[in-house]
Amino acid sequence: MKKQINVMQKIRLFFIGLLNMLLLVSCSNQPAKVHLSGNLKHFTSKTKLEPYEPIAKIKGESVLFEVDSLGNFEVEFDLNKPSYFRLGRNFLYLYPGQNLVVDCDYYSGKLGKFSGDGWEMNQYLTHKYFPKSGAYLETGAIFKDYPVDFDIIKNRLYEIEKECLDRLNSTQNITQQFKEIEENRIYLATACSFKMYNSYSFSARKDKEISNDEFWRENQPLMDKEIDRCLNKLKLTDECIQIEELYSLYKPLKEKNLLTSDMIDFANIKGLLYHLTALGPNHDFFDKREKHDIKNETYNELLNGVLSEYEDLFPGKPAPYLSFADQNNKEFNLENFKGKLLLIDIWATWCGPCCGEIPAYEKLWEEYKNKDINFISISVDENKGKWLNFLQKHDHNIPQYRTERANFEKYHVGGIPRFLLLDKNNCFIDAWAARPSNPDLVKLIDENLK
Question: Annotated active-site positions, please?
Fold first, then answer.
């Protein structure tokens, strides 16, 4: 009797899983609401869910929502097909009609816990590696347990690859599309690991008798051979366009003709969008766009739309409203600095290049402190404690403020450090001013102080 009950339970679970899969497939191409709720740790009160789907990515269509003081949240939005999203350092796979409960930490995707529709696929993604961190090398952490020996590391990387494949194959209730995408991602992550081997093993190696150039030359052919081996396992389709690892390996993938036309166009669009956020729509931007010759008309139309949004940041345009707080939580906004030129440094304590500009910025303040210009720094640190601790440990004369990164949405801040120069009426002189370490900034200030 007990055996019969167990069989019936297994049959019941099978049909529940099958029903969920059919529901996922049936709504995969139809717009429907996605409902997310749960608890988020170490997130700001204004948080965003960032899409990897190309159209949404180009349009900058993040899902913005609020998180209360206890970390609780609830949000609902439209989605027309299964897509990947990023939430802090967490990766989600969402589909139309889904109701998912999320418990995540901003700083670690490995701590995520999920329940509800499609929870298995999202739980699987808690094991995803970061390509920019060297994937399986994990910013060099692998060298704490293994020596800097290419053959040893090579074997370990393939062991990790097998572990990832086994984990994927053992995950229940996943769609065939998800499985195919993730299998390609695993091979790409292995290739990313080999690509970054020299960079991360370089500082970990103990044998300093070999020169730096010799070390790189010795390993490069070995790395290239293994990267090629990984790429030969790929079976890429247009559905894989959302895999971020593709774009870390763009050059070898293109050389092997493994990328679809849309993937090539999207990679070029991503590069142009990065240029826009970092340097603005300057002459180099338009030269690059002409050189890329993007074929996808939808991408071109969307890029034109994005460009039109940047018109609000052109010289002479009023700077969008911006509020920020000092170390004592006193609120300020741009109106408090009207009447003088204003140079703004947008930075964060975790940003190496930002911290590298601090000495030059302080020196600039010293040179211009008695002139008709104000200098301020606005941090986008999520963690106020870390920001305050940094300020206590480092001397500074420039007034320090902090705000949520979401408040810079209209400024199109894609990367930091970013410097803005405003005139006496808070209108843009340059929304992408040169860094303090660049003499061009002094030239720009002097031209506008006259």
Answer: 351, 354
